[in-house]
Structure formats: C-alpha cells, structure tokens
Design a protein that fits this description.
By secondary structure, this protein is an alpha+beta fold. It contains eight helices and 20 strands. The chain has two domains: 119 residues, 3-Layer(aba) Sandwich (Rossmann fold), CATH 3.40.50; 214 residues, no CATH class. Helix content is 23%, strand content 27%.
Length: 349
C-alpha cells in the first residue's frame, strides 16, 4: 500500500533523530529536477520539526553521453558538483546533507565528508524506505559483522553453482551501511544494511559463477542462464556463458576501459527486511535497487572504481552483482553458508 506524505515525514523524523539531528544542527537538502519531490519535502519538514536550521541546494542535472539509461548508479565519477565551489561550500557548511540526487563515487562527496559533514542518501521509493526503516539494531548487527571483516586477511566465496573465488584483505577499509549517518564525516544510505571492503590490489583470483536468480545492477534484471567470470590478478579476464554473459560483456566492453573489469568491493547483505524478489515489483526507474544489495545472506561484489577509498581506479562503469546461495568465509571461518548468515556464537572455524 502507498505511504502517505504524513507517514513519510514521520519516517524522516525518525531517521534524522538516529542521525543526531536536533535544534543545534543545520541540514542541507541536496536536490535536482529529477529528485523525488515527496522525499525532498519530507526531509525538509522533518528537519524543521526537529528544530534544525534547514536549507536547500538545488543543482542542474549532469548528462554523461556514455550513459545508456538513467539509473543513478550506471555512470559514476562526475556530478553536478564537479567544479562548483560555491555549492561545495554550501554543503560543507551543513552538519548533515540529505542527498536526493546521488553523489556516490564522486571526489566531491569525499571532500564534503572529510570536512566533517555527515551525508544521508535517500533516492528509493517511499514504500521501500518504509519497509527498511532503519533501527539501532541494524547498526549493532552490521557493526558486529564489520569487526569480523576488519580482522580477516582472506575472503573466500564458494557455491554449488561453481564459484570458487578468493581475495586478500587489509589494504582498504571496511565500509558499513546501516541506514543513518550518526558520526562526523559518515556517509550512509537509507535503505541499506550490509558491509564490504575491497580486495588488495591484484589479489582477487578464481571463478565466480552467476546462477539463475542472481541480480545484475544497474540493469535490475535477474540472471536467466549461468555466467562464468574468470578472474586473475584482480580483473575479470573472461566472461562466458549464454545470452546473459554476452549482454554483460558487451555492456562493459563498450566503455573501452580495462579498469571496468577490475574487482571492486566485496561483502554481504544483513538486512532481513530487504527482499530478493523486490526488483521484480518495481519499475526500473523507481530507484536503484537497494533490496538487491542488502537482502540478508547475499554475496555482493562490484566492478570498477575504488577511488572512494583512495584506490587508483577512476572509471565510469560500476556494476553491483548480488548473488544467492553462496558460502562466504573469512580466514576459512564461515560468515554466510549457502545464503544464510551464520550466528558467530555458533560458528566453527
């Protein structure tokens, strides 16, 4: 059932409270013509209800001629903030920025966060925001998993479909998403509920087999036939299979940039309210598919850029691929077994 405007404002008030917004804070709502006006209005009203000083920053859209569709994650790097020093200053002056237009993977976002400003991305449909309204328990669950990931030096994934993939860890930080931005310089995304890190450069090796029902983002499609990815020295060296393999390889190759085939972040989903089936119930232009990224027990890996954590790859194509029924091991200790999250108190190494 649809979410009313009143409910949406109440939900934003809840999330802004979790993000430590009160009458001592300033909140900037970043928007463009394609932002959901209901989300912009609800964020603004909720911040006012909490006594914060609220202002809007509106920027024109930036079209990238390499884009095939209009998914906000399909092309990353350049944004309407690129070179816009006045807008940058306006956003860095806020305690919290509510991003309704998508700055992810941009150097400008990193600069804003480095200034101490917190950022909360909110671009999904209101009904999805309602179903995955974040809680303090989400933070506890994600942070507990993050401690295990931070302590690991090896990340291994296997599956009955044929995946057998390893990567070394430690060169890059662990990133958590639990749905609210409650610490200086923190970026988060409502809705979410997962964690990830990046493989050490050149360390990713093995085979990943995408099985029927796994998800290709930003296409927002379910894999219909197995796709085999052969990975050597941190890069996908070969993609083979049927139509899905040809489609994926053709799309990535069109960027004419070998860096789009690099393995980027690796992690797993921890959000029990996210639904594997959800992208089949939304129009592709409704949002960016956060259910797929966050559903509990997925193995989520990506390709392309890693500049957001100081890596060397600045490339426009960024694929996120959530997989089901995988087993994930940290230093040979399972954290997910065939798509089910392991209770650390009951796991055995």
């Amino acid at each position: 059932m649809p979410v009313s405007n009143t409910q949406l404002t109440q939900m934003f008030e809840h999330v802004l409270k979790l993000s430590r917004v009160d009458d001592t804070q300033s909140v900037a709502v970043l928007k463009s013509h394609y932002s959901n006006p209901r989300i912009v209005s609800a964020a603004t009203e909720a911040a006012q209800r909490l006594g914060a000083k609220v202002y809007g920053v509106e920027l024109p859209a930036l079209h990238d001629p390499r884009a095939v569709g209009n998914d906000l994650t399909a092309i990353v790097g350049n944004t309407p903030l690129t070179g816009n020093l006045a807008a940058m200053q306006a956003l860095m002056a806020a305690d919290l920025v509510v991003d309704t237009m998508m700055l992810l993977h941009s150097p400008e976002q990193g600069e804003i966060l480095d200034s101490g400003t917190r950022m909360l991305l909110a671009v999904e449909p209101p009904e999805m925001l309602a179903r995955m309204l974040p809680t303090e328990e989400d933070k506890v669950r994600v942070n507990a998993a993050a401690e295990r990931l931070k302590a690991a030096s090896t990340f291994r994934v296997t599956s009955n479909a044929g995946t057998d993939f390893t990567a070394q860890l430690g060169q890059y930080p662990v990133v958590t998403e639990y749905g609210f931005a409650d610490e200086p310089g923190r970026w988060d995304h409502w809705p979410s509920g997962f964690l990830f890190s990046w493989p050490n450069e050149g360390s990713a090796e093995g085979t990943i087999v995408l099985d029927v029902g796994d998800i290709l983002l930003p296409f927002k499609t379910y894999v219909q036939s197995p796709v085999t990815l052969e990975i050597r020295e941190g890069y996908i060296r070969k993609i083979h299979g049927g139509f899905d393999a040809e489609y994926l390889d053709t799309y990535m190759s069109r960027f004419n940039d070998p860096e789009v085939f690099a393995l980027s972040h690796l992690g797993w989903g921890l959000q029990p309210r996210a639904e594997w089936t959800a992208i089949g119930l939304h129009d592709k232009n409704d949002g960016i598919g956060m259910d797929a990224r966050a559903f509990e027990g997925n193995f989520l890996f990506s390709t392309g850029s890693n500049t957001e954590v100081g890596g060397p790859r600045n490339t426009p194509c960024h694929m996120d691929i959530p997989m089901r029924r995988c087993t994930i091991m940290l230093d040979e200790t399972p954290v997910v077994v065939e798509g089910r999250v392991v209770d650390p108190e009951n796991s055995t190494g």
